[in-house]
Amino acid sequence: MAGLLDNKIVVISGVGPALGTTLARRCAQAGADLVLAARTVERLDDVAKQITDTGRRAVAVGTDITDDDQVNNLVEASLAAYGRVDVLINNAFRVPSMKPLANTTFQHIRDAIELTVLGALRLTQGFTPALAESNG
């Protein structure tokens, strides 16, 4: 039976211990080969091994999506590994402060916006040419 993502190349940002790892496993189960991105490289290597142990391919690329150069490196590494990108999953995010607004610093809000909003835009911009080329 063919999987929904058979032979698709999927890039996932924010591959952390919870949702990102689950997304990676599910995409691999659906037939995808993966590019895994997050700031914590050790965790990425562990998830990549879990994926390759299932028979799918996975490349781990340490990436801080708030940094233009690192996002460009992620795009280049993805294309170097597979030659194309079919799907981008923007999963990197910062949990907002649970403090009352009066006790939340503007820096915390700036950091959350930089990662969650601008980081997703940065990734989308970076991968748009590759996604357009593959009709992703």
Keywords for this structure?
single chain; 136 residues; alpha/beta; Rossmann fold; four-stranded parallel β-sheet; 4 helices; 4 strands; 49% helix; globular
Describe it:
- This protein has helices spanning 19-29, 41-52, 68-82, 106-133, and strands at residues 9-13, 33-38, 58-62, 87-89.
- With 136 residues, it is α/β, with parallel strands linked by helices.
- The chain has a single domain (9-133), classed as NAD(P)-binding Rossmann-like Domain (Rossmann fold).
- The protein has a 4-stranded parallel β-sheet, with helices on both faces.
- It is globular and about 50 Å long.
- The mean pLDDT is 93.
Summarize the structure.
This protein is α/β, with parallel strands linked by helices and 136 residues long. It has one domain (9-133): NAD(P)-binding Rossmann-like Domain (Rossmann fold), CATH 3.40.50.720.
Can you lay out the helices and strands and say which pair or pack?
Elements lengths: L8 E5 L5 H11 L3 E6 L2 H12 L5 E5 L5 H15 L4 E3 L16 H28 L3
Parallel strand pairs: 1-2, 1-4, 2-3
Helix pairs in contact: 3-4
